[in-house]
Amino acid sequence: MAQTSAQDEFAKWAKLRRKHDKAISDLEKLNARLSASKSGFSTRFNSLVWIATTGAQFFLVWWYRREPVFYLPPGWFGPFTWFLSLPSAPSGSISGAVWQMACQRVVGMGERLVKDLMEPIPEQAEAVPKADSKAKTS
After folding, report:
1. What per-residue confidence (pLDDT) applies to 63?
2. How far apart are CA 1 and CA 13, in angstroms?
3. pTM across the whole model
4. What is the full DSSP assignment across the chain?
5. Staple 89 to which of 45, 53, 95, 109, CB 3.0 to 4.6 Å?
6. CA distance 127 to 33
7. Angle at CA 90, nearest 5°, toward 84 and 96?
């Protein structure tokens, strides 16, 4: 199209321009469809990941809400044992919900510890300035 003069060969230039404009329009439509498809896939994939991870945790805690994970020895935490058995596990036991919160906390702390250990230590700048190359003699 750049080799065709708009003034000298107008009919040829106009035909090429229409063909070019149609190709650009088709490309924009294809980009819009591709973008919508990517967005839809991303939404479905993120939903699937959420269901497989967080949704499964919610379901397990709900399903086993009345079952204790384990029982505490009597008198260890006094009246606080009531809180540890929430939402509906027997008194004196650790419920699935409390156990899940404790596990998430430990995993999070472990993650931070590993990240801190893996973080590179910045090199310390030399505190002593370089000595002058010309030494004074007495």
Report:
1. 92
2. 7
3. 0.56
4. -TTS-TTTSHHHHHHHHHHHHHHHHHHHHHHHHHHHHHHHHHHHHHHHHHIIIIIHHHHHHHHTTTSEEEEPPTTSSGGGHHHHTTTTSPTTEEEHHHHHHHHHHHHHHHHHHHHHHHSPPPPPPPSSPPPPSS----
5. 95
6. 60
7. 55
pLDDT digits (tens, 9 = 90+) for 32-65: 999 999 999 999 999 999 999 999 999 999 999 8
Sign, Cα dihedral of 36, 38, 44, 49? negative
Strand partners, 93: 71
Name residues whose C-beta falls within 8 Å of residue 71's C-beta, 6 or more positions apart in sequence: 90, 92, 93, 94
Nearest to 100 by CA among 43, 130, 37, 56: 56
Q: Do 99 and 60 contact (CB within 8 A), yes or no?
A: no
pLDDT, residue 129, reads: 56
Read off the tokens for 127: 């505190």
